Amino acid sequence: MLIGKPFAKIIDIVTGVLAFVMVGVLAFSYINDRFGLLTDAGDLAWLEKWREIGVLTVVGLAGLSFALKRNVFLFVIFVIILAVAAVFFFWTL
After folding, report:
1. How far is it, in rounded angstroms, from Cα 19 to Cα 80?
2. What angle do CA 5, 7, 11 make, to 5 degrees?
3. Among 19, 23, 51, 59, which is least packed, fewest CB within 10 Å?
4. Is the Cα torsion angle 52, 60, 24, 7 positive or negative in sign?
């Protein structure tokens, strides 16, 4: 039984847009590491936090899109694993 193929198409579009933005954030982060554009500790912490949130979001949406096209059992397992990752991510902030 497929859960949500139409919903998966929407998630694919959102994932693509966020992936494009995250490539820019990652590129800026790597350029900043090399050339030191941001030197304030608060700015660096902000960049690191958003980089981690963005990566977790893009990977979570991509996995959700994959799981929605499969069966309910795989979807439930993926959502549980994603929830555990999100809880421990926000617990460490």
Report:
1. 23
2. 110
3. 23
4. negative
Q: Which amino acid is at 61?
A: L
**What does the alpha-carbon distance between residue 82 and residue 55 come to, in Å, rounded to a whole number?**
12
Cα–Cα distance for residue pair 51/29, rounded to 1 Å: 8
The predicted pLDDT at position 1 comes to 44
pTM above 0.90, yes or no: no
Sign of the dihedral defined by the CA atoms of residues 86, 88, 91, 92, in that order = negative
The full length of the chain comes to 93
